């Protein structure tokens, strides 16, 4: 369910960090859910490292990274954010 944001949140507010992480988590879940993305890690696939506002995408092929980047962009547009 999408909704319009009617007011801004101050950067120093605790809520701004939570809202940022909420949107980033939404974008990441929507764009890296393909089982071919990422690198093999034990019995699963590791697709990304997230730390604060930095994201490192992982892949064993360049084409896959380009595909994930396009999916990130599409997911961000769907959430009214821009990458």
Describe the structure in your own words.
With 83 residues, the chain is of the alpha+beta class. It has a domain at 38-83. The chain is 42% helix and 17% strand. It has 2 helices and 4 strands; from the N terminus they run H-E-E-E-E-H. It has helices at residues 14-31, 62-78; strands spanning 39-41, 44-46, 48-51, 54-57. The strands form 2 sheets. A two-stranded antiparallel sheet has the order 1-2. The chain has a two-stranded antiparallel ribbon with strand order 3-4. Strand 1 (39-41) and strand 2 form a beta hairpin. Helix 1 packs across helix 2 (62-78). The longest helix has 18 residues, at 14-31. The protein is elongated. The two termini are 21 Å apart. The mean pLDDT is 76.
Helix-strand blueprint:
Blueprint: H1 14-31, E1 39-41, E2 44-46, E3 48-51, E4 54-57, H2 62-78
Antiparallel strand pairs: 1-2, 3-4
Helix pairs in contact: 1-2
Mean pLDDT: 76
Strand-residue fraction?
15-25%
Strand order, sheet with most strands: 1-2
Count the helices. How many? 2
The low-confidence parts are none
Radius of gyration: 14 Å
Order of helices and strands: HEEEEH
**Topology, number of strands:** 4
Helical percentage: 40-55%
Q: Measure the end-to-end span.
A: 21 Å
Quaternary assembly:
single chain
Identify the overall geometry: elongated
Structural class: alpha+beta
The main sheet comes to: 2 strands, antiparallel
């Amino acid at each position: 369910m999408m909704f319009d944001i009617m007011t801004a949140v101050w950067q120093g507010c605790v809520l701004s960090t939570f809202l940022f992480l909420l949107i980033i988590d939404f974008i990441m879940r929507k764009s890296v859910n393909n089982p071919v993305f990422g690198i093999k890690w034990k019995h699963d696939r590791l697709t990304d490292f997230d730390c604060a506002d930095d994201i490192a995408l992982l892949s064993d092929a360049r084409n896959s990274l380009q595909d994930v980047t396009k999916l990130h962009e599409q997911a961000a547009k769907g959430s009214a954010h821009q990458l």
